[in-house]
Amino acid sequence: MLKFPPRALILFLCPPTLCHMRKTIALVAEELLKRAVIGLPDDVEIALANAYSNETKEVAKEQLKIILENIGVARKNQTALCQDTGTISFFVRGKNLTSEIRDGIFDGVLAATKNIPLRPNSVNPLTRKNIGNHPFIHLEFSDNDYLEISVIPKGAGCENMSALFMLRPSDGLEGVRKAILTHVAQKAKNACPPIVLGIGIGGTPEQAMLSAKENHLKKLTSKNPDPILAELEARLLTEINELGVGTMGLGGLRTALSVKILSHPCHTASLPVAVNIECWADRRLTARIFKDGKIEYF
Ligand code: SF4
Fold first, then answer.
1. What are the helix and strand counts (H, E) for the chain?
2. What's the CA-to-centroid distance between 82 and ligand 1, angstroms?
3. Which atom of ligand 1 is nearest to the CA of 83?
4. Distance, CA 148 to ligand 1 centroid (Å)?
5. How far is the centre of ligand 1, averaged over its atoms, from the C-alpha of 87 (Å)?
6. Structural domains of the chain in order of their starting residue, each with its CATH number
7. What would the pLDDT profile of 200-213 be if each residue is shown by its tens digit?
8. Strand ranges, E, within the chain
9. In testing the pocket of ligand 1, which one of 37, 67, 81, 82 has its CB within 8 Å of the most ligand atoms?
10. What is the pTM of this model?
């Protein structure tokens, strides 16, 4: 099946060191957003198609059929697959993290808002005055000889179901599992399920929240290298699907497509647990910008 726009494509621009870095980053940020809001990653689409094939409850199957048709229409018409093009988070990894990258991302978001177009979703939190789309940029130092930029445009329906629990260390693994399951049982129906669940365990409270969201950069099929976390992911996925919330909260077999966990060391007296829920429109895309001007999207 030929997909538009192709999600894995190599482009060549003149080398960023020779061109204006800000302009290159702006083009990449706009392209990332265009591809991300129009087409879902293959693994997400396959997971939704499998959910449709296996679903036995008629109303849930019908909803999944509509979701899959919606994905096809968005791709054919080159339009955003959901009207909520979300709050935009960028994750940037590289050696030389300069203000030109930040400025380029802001330029790219401005252009994407106008050209794709994206719904202007950002407002002053108190006056509610609209300011367009304000991106959030998270930086990570890396030794790679390329610059990597990922984007997650995330809708408010699922983002509003986020939570942070400051558990007691004595709550342990069982306390973590119960806190997540109780929260998802209450909130999943409001997050346009089937959901993808991102969990951050440990670190500081703000690191746990960031880790929870960063999980959404992983492929649904990726394996957790930590056997304890891998087991917790598998158990939570089974238990969440046994809740029977189902597609769009209408019941059925699939409440969640995947559970992903990231953990960091934390204070001996703390146990932060953060939950970040993605809806079925689990949008993400990454670009790698190489020194010779080659750009890969995947
Ligand atoms: S939660 Fe997701 S699918 Fe639902 S309206 Fe928001 S972006 Fe769209």
1. 8, 12
2. 6
3. 8
4. 26
5. 11
6. 9-39+81-155+283-297 (3.30.360), 157-278 (no CATH)
7. 999 999 999 999 99
8. 9-12, 87-94, 122-123, 130-132, 136-141, 146-154, 163-167, 195-202, 256-264, 271-278, 285-290, 294-297
9. 82
10. 0.92
